[in-house]
Amino acid sequence: MNRSKWRNVRNELFSNAFGIAALSILAIFTLAAAFAFLSPMDPNALDITAKLQPPSLHHLFGTDDYGRDYFTRALYGGRVSLMVGFASMILSTGIGATIGIVSGYFGGWIDNLLMRLLEVFLSIPSFLVLLLLSVFLSPSVGNIIVIIAFLMWMNIARIVRAETLSLKTREYVLYARASGQNSFGIILKHILPNLVPVIIVGATNNIASAILMESSLSFLGFGVQPPNATWGSMLNNAQSYVVNSPNLALFPGLLILLTVLSFNILGDILRVGFEPKLGRR
Amino acid sequence: MRQLIARRLLQAIPLLFVVSVVCFGLVKLAPGDPVLSFVTPNMHAEDIERIRHNLGLDQPAYVQYYHWLMECLSGNLGYSLVNHQPVFDQIVDRIPATAGLMGISIALAILIAIPLGLIAGSNRNRFIDKAINLFAYIGISVPTFWLGILAIYLFAIKLHWLPSMGMRTIGQNSAWDIIKHGILPCAVLTFGFLASYLRYIRSGTISQLKEDYVQIQYAFGSKKSTVLFRHVMKHILLPVITLLGLSIGDLVTGALVTETVFSWPGIGSLGMTAVRGMDYPVILGITIFSALLLVFGNLLADILYGVADPRIKLGEVSS
Amino acid sequence: MRKKIFGIAAVTLLTLVVSACSGNNNNGNTASNGDNTAQASPSASGSSQPKDGGNLIIAVGADPVILNPNYAGDRVSLTIDQSLYAPLFQVNNGVKTFYLADSLTPSADNLTYTLKLKSGLTWHDGQPLTADDVVFTFDKILDEKQNSFFRENLIIGGKPIQVVKVDDTTVDFKLPQVSPAFEATLVQLTPIPKHIFEKEDNIEKSTKNAAPIGSGPFKFKEYKTGEYVTLERFDNYFAGKPHLDSVTYRIAKDTNAANLALQNGEINVKYLDPQDVGTIEATKNFDILPYSEGRLAYLLFNENSDTGVLGKKEVRQAISYALSRDELIATAYSSKDYADPAKSFVTPDGLFHTNDVPSFDNDADKAKQLLEAAGVKNLKLRFIVSSGNKAQEAASLYVQQKLKAVGITVELKNMDASAYGQKFVDPNAKDFELAYAGYIMGYDPDAYSILYKTNSTSNYTHYSNKEVDALFVQGAGEADATKRGEAYVQLQNLIAEDAPIYPVAYTKTIVAVDKRYGGLDEAVLKPVVIFEDLSKIYLK
């Protein structure tokens, strides 16, 4: 990983209007979620006298069917949504990178075994399994993160493996092996640093899919436990009131869209930045 | 070529075996006792044990798996715990609805994605490219169920142009009626597929335009549109077909959320109902069915990829 | 699978729901009443003249399990069977309406009931419906190999009843001993055609159920799984040709989607959650019809949980004090229009019901005192909720908020409807303390003994009080109505004092019917099955 690559990425990011927009959106959402407790309202306080109010200065996004402040709920919901996305990204990237490196570096039967495992995972209908698992594990945030991560590591593993295969044949790696360094050291010193770009790109895309997966799951009613909400579970509830209170459906959906969109755009910009041979977009 | 295809098909068999074990195991691990669905308040413990024995649920898991697998191979996926109907028939019943919805959506997506992708790729970094690109980004980022809700709100509730749920108006059995019901779910699905195809075709176009044959065509004075829609398209088309193979694997679960939002009576809805009702034989049947589609979809993609570009060595998993 | 209005408990208590169909029967109405052969007289209240033709679309929440009345126990199957198979007779507010039957006469010793069928009855396929079919139906229910869960109801004092054909339209039921509940049993049972099923080994699994032949106002036309069941007019219906051409039961599993479809005119009749009434009413296109199903909604205290903390009466009373019934009703049912505040475990339609019983309600200070006196600190309770059930979700959120104010932490455990159902009825479930549920037990208070007697089959609270047990035994065997009443009033007071549940409300079922349809009064709103006789409904 050399310095020019990072510079390249930075240039790519800041010279691209989409990139700047994506970064700002994510920064704002993350800060908003982190500082959600500053909101004067309790996200779970019921107020049946103030049901389904339209957006106003007092309730920026209006109130839901239990009279809870929708804006505050969206702040706290974003916290869970972002956390699920981020944590499953870390976990899935960890699993994927490890399997990819081990498989690519050691080759032979290990590679064969791991790749068959990967094929099995690819051949399991992931969303169905996701639903099934979340039915019989009690649906807590932790469980959801683990389940999503276990269904998402394959892509990164494949990319990392391919990259490792090509890195393995580089002269400095061959030299290091010849001079008797142990495999762990070589991987840590010579392979891993060069994998950082592909891993970052893969990880960024993984956050985006994790957030989408979680929101679908929550939308179908298999998400986190009430009274907590995520953007997806807010939408589940909103469908019943779409006729008279379309704002309930509009806001959480927009938030999901903007977040996922930003991560996807970011992922692509990073990829282009890390691989200058592709040239500017 | 034929040999290679045969080899890949053979390789799929152990894979399917392992997948079936995994799926069976997952469902077996699920909590809740399937026998309970046969129990009524008046039954005694002996009755319950008798039912358990009759269903073969008192045997060890591997024996149950063996019986289940043998039954599967003879086309019997077991019986629903809820309505006691054969699972196989229920799945077959739902195939047309899902296949029709997905098939048309995928076809439409490809038809729209090809010209848009070619235009975007050949006008790189111009306004039109950026616009198409943003459109594609939104397509892969938007939660389909949200899009579905918005579509229902706008076109069914506010404008009254289209129905909001199901596949048929009661009492009408015309093709047009089914089409009318299919427009909204189809549009939502198409949007999603379109986006990913579009990105694929756009980057394909960009790399094709650098190839020598394009430069030669230009040197011979061919018009840009001719080069694009005749020559570049030819080279892009086959890889696009491989996408179809991958989409087949998505057939069941891909439409699950959309089918739920629009109450479309397809396999996805069936699966959703089964999951909610813990109807394990149905869940297992659908899981196996979609795993089968996934494996053969991937296989098909590989093979088509090999046909499209003979330089690619068959045997690698396509990505 | 989102049965929103009716807690899954009501669904799980299969036979209870079924018995609820019978609703108000055997209340001193000494049978036979030939003069009560109320063939629902032509519309008096209807503003417009009935017209023929048209289709009615009724939303149902799931696929029917089985379209055979000998086996149907789920709400959807029962609803469709109601149109497909005519009953022998029905009872509403103690008055019999005869359908297939012409009369039912008990002998002087009350050991033989003679059922006269109307003459000239036919099945949908044109075959005559005779005493043979009735005898066949009862024989098959009594046949152990046929697995009908009605069998238990036909065993009285350990012996089966005997069903004997007298002539083509007369059947005698011979009881082994006097049973006042027999008519209540009979009202639930509907003849199935002998000529269709006599050669079937296993009627429940028979393929004949896929195209049922009945005797009701509408005959089977088409069933598309996951989509709809369509029935069409049966011209030879004994009570006159139905007005509508067809009735379609639209399977709408997602309540949200179904509500949208209702507003969009794609559905004409649908159960509503109280929360949704406002939205639907605003369209001005629907009659909103609330009616009582004789159901109690209550907060359940599981005394058997592993913490055992709810075994203390004072803790249960303290929790009750911490809650406000009125607020809870407003949260879960929008307004008292759809839920009457409940204090007694017996529903208002039940015999000897009184709401004048001790109640612990809306006094947070008292709650804190009781908790302190009981030495309970930092109480943590687990509340199981069937996700998607709006009343349950609302109640759980409310309870969580109110109990927090008295220092009790409530952890909500939302689970899938079927998982909830299994956990709720599992006598060994120890991992929850609270649940929100409902029951429909019917008319006679003896039915409640299975809920509150020590170690009874459906004693989900695991409540135990020797005095209560004794009173239930006394009440069941007491012939004198006054003394019997005293026993049950005392019971209601005792149980209210012990607070094994926190009774919330006697809830109403709400049905929305498109205003274009008339004849609703004549069709008679009926618990569980929505309408008793759809032949009376017409398009205005």
Automatic annotation (TrEMBL), chain A:
Name of the featured protein: ABC transporter permease
Q: How does this protein sit in the membrane?
A: Multi-pass membrane protein
Q: PANTHER family annotated for this entry?
A: D,D-DIPEPTIDE TRANSPORT SYSTEM PERMEASE PROTEIN DDPC-RELATED (PTHR43386:SF1), OLIGOPEPTIDE TRANSPORT SYSTEM PERMEASE PROTEIN APPC (PTHR43386)
Q: Does the keyword Transit peptide apply?
A: no
Location (main, coarse): membrane
The chain positions of domain ABC transmembrane type-1 read 78-267
Q: Which organism is it from?
A: Cohnella endophytica
Q: Which family does it belong to?
A: Belongs to the binding-protein-dependent transport system permease family.
Q: Which biological process terms from the Gene Ontology are attached to this UniProt entry? A: transmembrane transport
The record's section on Gene3D superfamilies has: MetI-like
Please tell me one Gene Ontology term that the record gives under cellular component.
plasma membrane
Transmembrane annotation, as ranges:
12-38, 80-105, 117-137, 143-160, 191-213, 249-274
UniProtKB/TrEMBL annotation, chain B:
Q: Which GO terms describe its biological process?
A: transmembrane transport
Query: Is the Transferase keyword given for this protein?
Result: no
Kindly list the residue ranges recorded as spanning the membrane: 12-30, 99-122, 134-158, 178-200, 236-262, 282-305
Q: How does the protein associate with the membrane? A: Multi-pass membrane protein
Chief location = membrane
Indicate where this protein resides in the cell.
Cell membrane
User: One GO CC annotation, please?
Assistant: plasma membrane
Write down a Pfam family by its short name.
BPD_transp_1_N
Alphabetical keyword list: Cell membrane, Membrane, Transmembrane, Transmembrane helix, Transport
Q: Which CDD domains match?
A: TM_PBP2
What Gene3D superfamilies does the record tag this protein with? MetI-like (1.10.3720.10)
Is Kinase a UniProt keyword of this protein?
Answer: no
Query: Could you tell me which InterPro entries the record lists for this protein?
Result: BPD_transp_1_N, MetI-like, MetI-like_sf
User: In what residue span(s) does the ABC transmembrane type-1 domain sit?
Assistant: 95-305
The record's family statement is: Belongs to the binding-protein-dependent transport system permease family.
Q: What is the protein name given in its UniProt record?
A: ABC transporter permease
State the organism of origin: Cohnella endophytica
Automatic annotation (TrEMBL), chain C:
Instruction: State a single Pfam family of this protein.
Output: SBP_bac_5
Q: Which UniProt keywords apply?
A: Signal
Q: Which GO terms describe its cellular component?
A: ATP-binding cassette (ABC) transporter complex; periplasmic space
State the InterPro entries in the record: Peptide/Ni-bd, SBP_5, SBP_5_dom
Residues forming coiled coils: none
Looking up Gene3D superfamilies in the UniProt record yields: Dipeptide-binding Protein, Domain 1, Dipeptide-binding Protein, Domain 3, Periplasmic binding protein-like II
Q: Secretion signal: which residues?
A: 1-20
Name the segments for region: Disordered: 27-51
Composition bias, Low complexity: 27-50
Q: Per the UniProt entry, what are the Gene Ontology biological process annotations, in alphabetical order?
A: peptide transport
Domain Solute-binding protein family, residue spans? 100-459
One Gene Ontology molecular-function label: peptide transmembrane transporter activity
Specify the protein name.
ABC transporter substrate-binding protein
